[in-house]
Specification:
Blueprint (H helix, E strand, L loop, with lengths): L4 E11 L7 E6 L20 E3 L9 E3 L1 E4 H8 L3 H7 L2 E5 L7 H13 L3 E6 L5 H7 L5 E5 L4 H8 L4 H12 L4 E7 L7 H13 L3 E8 L3 H8 L13 H14 L4 E2 L1
Parallel strand pairs: 2-6, 6-7, 7-8, 8-9, 9-10, 10-11
Antiparallel strand pairs: 1-2, 1-5, 3-4
Helix pairs in contact: 1-3, 7-9
Bound molecules: iron/sulfur cluster.
């Protein structure tokens, strides 16, 4: 029996935005990156954290619960009938699932063994060997495109090159891929950024679609609740921002774009 545990900070049931059909999304706590706009700052640390309640009056909650693969699977398999009826399944997200490599591998293998569709949402920042060994276990890669190479290190905390190489690697091996693009007005949504997304979509085989994820400022309040002194702040993306993104991407690529 595998009693390896990793920190899980949420299990979302009946999710419909993280892969096809009705899904269970398992969020693993810990990420090596530091996107300045991170909407889930409680997912960054690999340690449990105390987070003040949203209303400021209830006791703080502990974020991060150590769980085994079997404990997670007990929750995941409960909804198998919904997955089967909707074409859904399991999505492993984070934080960064590839930073929890052994756990993610074992969880995906357990789901596959039970005939459950698998997706991984990742920044793609991980050693090539990890990605290669997950290829047979992942039915769909939800691959983040966070910034063009010229801005990547400044906004995300690492250079883009190894991530782009990893994307080309899985594409060359026939992986099914959705590009997930968090867009923050006036931060990573300029012509260069939109052109980069479109170029990747056009030049990479296996891209099913582009998902745009408009910025929302939920992370700002969470940073304060975690006791952090600095928090990124920007307004919600406007309708005009979204229209401009869609217009540019529709002009630059024939891949489907979802907002
Ligand atoms: S990769 Fe995701 S979890 Fe990690 S810092 Fe960026 S937005 Fe946050």
């Amino acid at each position: 029996m595998n009693d390896r545990k990793t920190l899980v900070f949420d299990i979302e049931k009946f999710a419909v935005h993280d892969g096809p059909g009705i899904r269970t999304v398992v969020f693993l706590k810990g990420c090596p990156l530091r996107c300045i706009w991170c909407h889930n700052p409680e997912s960054q640390s690999f340690e449990p954290e105390q987070m003040a309640s949203a209303d400021g009056t209830s006791p703080p909650e502990t974020v991060g619960r150590p769980m085994t693969v079997e404990e997670v699977m007990a929750s995941v398999r409960r909804d198998k009938a919904f997955y089967d009826n909707s074409g859904g399944g399991l999505t492993v997200s984070g934080g960064e699932p590839l930073a929890h490599f052994a756990f993610t591998r074992d969880l995906l293998a357990a789901a596959k063994a039970e005939g459950i569709h698998t997706a991984v949402e990742t920044s793609g920042f991980a050693p090539r060997e990890r990605i290669e060994s997950l290829l047979p276990l992942v039915d769909l890669w939800l691959w983040d495109v966070k910034a063009p190479p010229s801005l990547h290190e400044k906004l995300v905390g690492c250079p883009a090159e190894s991530i782009l190489d990893n994307l080309a690697f899985i594409a060359a091996r026939g992986a099914a891929i959705v590009l997930r693009c968090p867009l923050v007005p006036n931060v990573n949504d300029g012509d260069e950024a939109l052109g980069h997304i479109a170029h990747l979509a056009e030049s990479t085989p296996g891209i099913q679609r582009i998902d745009i994820e408009p910025y929302h400022p939920l992370g700002e309040g969470k940073c304060r609740r975690l006791g952090r002194s600095e928090a990124f702040s920007a307004p919600f993306a406007s309708d005009a921002d979204k229209a401009r993104w869609l217009d540019a991407l529709h002009r630059l690529t024939s891949r489907p774009v979802h907002l």
